[in-house]
Amino acid sequence: MSRRGGGRGPPGGGGRGRGGGPYAAGPGGNCVCPNCGKTVPHQVGVPCYQTKCPSCGATMVRQ
Ligand SMILES: [Zn+2]
Q1: How confident is the model at residue 11 (pLDDT cuts 50, 70, 90)?
Q2: Which helix (H) or strand (E) holds 62?
Q3: Where are the domains of the chain?
């Protein structure tokens, strides 16, 4: 439990590098499916609204 007085913000630190795993949330954030709720890492250069949900095929939106 880490409480930070503020509310929201990027998790502290940063600069952990990438390549942690297929679910590593980068600085780009995630895209979420409004239909089934699935989230996928946002791909750089590919807007979420151009990404299709791998589960149901719906258009993803920015999380
Ligand atoms: Zn979906």
Answers
A1: low
A2: strand 61-62
A3: 27-63
